[in-house]
Amino acid sequence: MASWLRKKEVHNKAPDLDSPLLTVKGIERSFQVGSQKLQVLKGIDMELKRSQLVMLRGRSGSGKTTLMNLIGGLDEPSSGEIFFLGHPFHKCSDDQRTHIRRQEIGFIFQSFALMPLLSARENVELALRMAGTPRSQWKSRVAHCLELVGLSKRMNHRPFELSGGEQQRVAIAKAIAHRPSLLLADEPTAELDSQMGAQIMSVFQSIIATEQVTICMTTHDPTILEVADHVYEMVDGRFVS
Ligand SMILES: Nc1ncnc2c1ncn2[C@@H]1O[C@H](COP(=O)(O)OP(=O)(O)OP(=O)(O)O)[C@@H](O)[C@H]1O
Ligand SMILES: [Mg+2]
After folding, report:
1. Are 162 and 120 in contact (CB under 8 A)?
2. Which residues surround ligand 2, an ion (CB under 5 A)?
3. Is Cell membrane one of the keywords (predicted)?
4. How far apart are CA 19 and CA 49, in angstroms?
5. Lesser CB count within 10 Å: N end or C end of the chain?
6. How confident is the model at residue 154, as a pLDDT?
């Protein structure tokens, strides 16, 4: 494994804060559907800087989730390049990409994706266990992350004992527990009312400031777009400005 993969870049050496976290160059992605090739992404260029809140907007079917999956290393582009922390994501093996993803990326989904039988505390702890964080650090890190999202008092509640907004905040605590440098959130507020959506956005802003994480999210909500550092608008697999 390449030496840069063995260590967690952001915590083991001083990061070059001016270098981009992620650079996407000329990404295309097509799918074979029956006998037809469906071209979904048609040449995407983007850059995510550190500690930014970046949003993707676009109509249903424009390709937002397809792009998020590529950025998060869940899928491979048909052509083009993705550099994560300066290193060529597109040239990595599946194992290498999985390794980087576990160390450096956190995911948040529209539907929260919590383990239903585990408490808030246990859900966050599970993320640390999966990331290989030493057990001695679990308790304090779990407490810290739940405090960041304002749920210290709900630690022992299971998902069904929490509101939708609270469940999404547990999901955020879970996604940032292993100190990723990038948080990807696909329509994180779509299932919430506007007040809970606003709470999620304020949690995002505070974790960008305190955890030095970059958040890239998709949304359809125009009021949410207002707080972005940058908005990419996607139309039919391309960005328009
Ligand atoms: N694995 C796949 N195989 C074939 N087609 C796919 C696949 N994944 C996505 N697509 C197609 O790519 C297009 C873009 O899908 P994508 O999920 O990226 O859109 P989106 O912008 O996230 O939409 P929404 O706002 O509804 O979530 C759609 O037409 C979809 O049917
Ligand atoms: Mg989508």
Report:
1. yes
2. 64-65
3. no
4. 7
5. C
6. 96
Distance 74 CA to ligand 2 centre (A): 14
Q: Which residue lies with its CA nearest to atom 4 of ligand 1?
A: 31
Nearest CA to ligand 1 atom 30: 61
Residue 68 Cα to ligand 2 midpoint, Å, equals 9
For ligand 1, mutation pick of 28, 39, 44, 65 (most atoms within 8 Å of CB): 65
Q: Which atom of ligand 1 is nearest to the CA of 59?
A: 25
Q: Is 177 helix (H, G, I), strand (E, B) or coil?
A: coil
Bridge partners (DSSP) listed for residue 237: none
Distance from Cα 52 to the centre of ligand 2, integer Å: 21
Tokens of 40: 């979904």
What's the farthest any 2 CA atoms get from each other in the chain?
A: 55
Span from the CA of 66 to the centroid of ligand 1 (angstroms): 6
Q: What is the 3-state secondary structure of 46-87?
A: EEECCCCEEEEEECCCCCHHHHHHHHCCCCCCCEEEEEECCE
Q: How far apart are CA 203 and CA 189, in angstroms?
A: 12
Own/partner long-range contacts of 220-223 (Cβ < 8 Å, ≥24 apart): 220/57, 220/187, 220/190, 221/189, 221/194, 221/197, 223/194, 223/198
d(CA 86, CA 63): 24
